[in-house]
């Protein structure tokens, strides 16, 4: 049962992280207007407009990825018990895989992709695991 619990933890972590990611992306689109003449609604529009984006347009996408990974990993670590680190890292790896898929369709600047890949997923999942881990130790299945 602990392994099934870890699978459930990953699923719940992905759902929570996905909700947080969407909320932050939406918040960013409300607070920071898209570049003039940019159609950021569709993939084609983003592909055609990404060269118009400035630094401020990349802040919320990075925050969304990082905080979603952190929160998803935290929730997964709290639920997973003994397999807390595995669950937290699986959340991050799945979010990273989704980002790679998105970045293969939209040519974001290399500097942004490098920062996002290096800091938004695995390090945030590790922190989320560490924050969620003390609470997981109260679980009798943890050891």
TrEMBL record:
Transmembrane segments: 7-24, 58-76, 83-104
Domain of life where this protein originates: Bacteria
Keywords: Membrane, Transmembrane, Transmembrane helix
Protein's name in the database: Uncharacterized protein
């Amino acid at each position: 049962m602990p392994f099934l619990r870890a699978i459930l933890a990953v699923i719940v972590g992905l759902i929570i992280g996905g909700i947080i990611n969407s909320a932050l992306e939406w918040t960013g689109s409300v607070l920071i207007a898209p570049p003039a003449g940019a159609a950021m609604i569709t993939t084609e529009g983003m592909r055609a407009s990404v060269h118009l984006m400035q630094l401020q347009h990349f802040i919320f996408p990075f925050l969304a990825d990082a905080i979603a990974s952190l929160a998803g990993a935290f929730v997964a670590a709290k639920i997973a018990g003994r397999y807390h680190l595995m669950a937290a890292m699986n959340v991050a790896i799945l979010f990273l895989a989704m980002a790679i898929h998105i970045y293969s369709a939209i040519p974001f600047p290399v500097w942004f992709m490098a920062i996002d890949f290096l800091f938004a997923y695995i390090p945030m999942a590790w922190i989320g695991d560490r924050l969620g881990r003390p609470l997981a130790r109260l679980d009798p299945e943890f050891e």
